[in-house]
Amino acid sequence: MRICYTFWGVLLALTLSLCSGCSNLALRDAQSAYQQGDLATAQVKIDLYSEKNIEGRNAIIAQLEKGSIYRALEQYEQSNAAFEIANQQFEYWDMQPEFKIGDESAAMLTNLNMLPYRGYNYDRIMLYTYRALNYMQLGHVDKARVEMKRALNAQREAVSRNAKRLEKMQEQAEAKAQQERKKKSGGFNADKTLNSDKLKASMGAQFAELKKHQAYADYVNPFTEFLQGIYYMHASLDGSDLDQARLSLQRVRNMVPSNAYLGQDLDAILRLQAGSEREPITYVIYEAGLAPSRDDVRIDLPLFLVNDEVDYVAMAFPTLRMHNNYIATISISTPAGRIATQPIASMDSIIAQEFTNELPIIVTKTVLNSATKAAAAWAAKNATKKDDNVQFMVQLGTAIYQAATAEADLRTWATLPKEFQYARVATPADKTIKIGLGEGFFKEVKLDSGLINVVYVKSITLGHPPKVTQFVLRK
Fold first, then answer.
1. pTM above 0.90, yes or no
2. Total structural domains within the chain
3. Residue 110 to residues 69, 87, 136, 453, 461, Cα–Cα distance (Å)
4. Which UniProt keyword terms apply here (predicted)?
5. What pLDDT score was predicted for residue 164?
6. CB-based burial, 326-344: b 16+ in 10 Å, e otherwise
7. Do the beta carbons of residue 51 and residue 23 sit within 8 Å?
């Protein structure tokens, strides 16, 4: 009877794992089309995927990707509609316990893709940032104010949110350890595995590259702060908005001191506060490249059983893969001369920093996942030790089961950019600027008749023409 249970348990786990794999493959198809610059195909694929994931464990990632793909297509209302669904799903999952028995059981028996994608702090911040930009590009500058405040609140709440998640994960690991220690054999010593020198050395070697990415203050996105700065500066309702603008831009300058344009904006705020008239300014914001995607890496690590046996198991961990196939900078030419955009925020660094902060949770979940499956395999082997033929078949089945379900959670908002840059120029009298987009390609832009104009340039990869749009921040 126990053998029968083992067989059906393995079959169920494999079925669940295959279901999660197919779902993630559909997501990656949409992401891949976007990464290749094929927005039409990306739209079709993300529509199909998001329709199947209005709710449930993949709802957030589905709607985030849909929102940014529609934004790239300049369909801003549809983009904001998708982002609003994602926001509602964030609120829903925030109300749910971090670890639900049903979700955790399925994930422990298969892989971590069975858990709901609850998103990262940079997801929330960029969701509100993009919604604000969408409203600005739709001409609803006033509606962007609410989204700016939401983005600021998301940044403030991020540190405490992550601390609570880490605490809950540690509690779960301890509960699992106590449960396993009660077993006379076949149990798993969680503490010993999680604190093993082999685990620490492997993690240190595998993720050392992440330390090369310069970190900002925890969970602060300088681009979001910058956008708040110029928004409150030029869409100001009173003096307090100018104070907020100065504080935001000063924070960005502290994080990105090499950007010379920030000093010009801060000087402009001081002149406005002193009573000077506004000068016609054109901002050029450049959204460049692709954010890191995720690959999996398999590392052989020891699992310690309570009876002092040691079993080495291949565990699958996610790792970040950076994309460097992008136009590094763009130029802006006016009768006054030629300048280039300068970096304001590296999404590579923001994502790498949060990935590093999240790593203890990822490692603990992965070890618990591997241990649960290894313990099940040990129990199946022990239950059939009196029959060599049956034991061989069970061992073969559990080996296939462990290999098939050893899959890292690679879900990530892959259509975010690699970095943001900006430049500012005095608006020419003829309202015309020329933008150099790399490899001798120039685009002449006839500016709108605003006092404060914003030209938005988006480039996904080399070899695909950038998209250039504009909006008026102040008439």
1. no
2. 1
3. 31, 28, 44, 52, 36
4. Signal
5. 77
6. bbeebbbbbeeeebebbbb
7. no
Q: Which residues contact 58 (CB under 8 A, 6 or more apart)?
A: 23, 27, 116, 117, 411
CA distances from 313 to 107, 112, 393 (A): 17, 16, 19
Q: How far is CA 245 from CA 23, 257, 303, in A?
A: 43, 17, 53
Range of the structural domain that residue 364 is part of: 2-474
pLDDT in tens, 377-435: 666 556 556 555 555 555 555 555 555 556 889 999 999 999 999 999 999 999 999 99
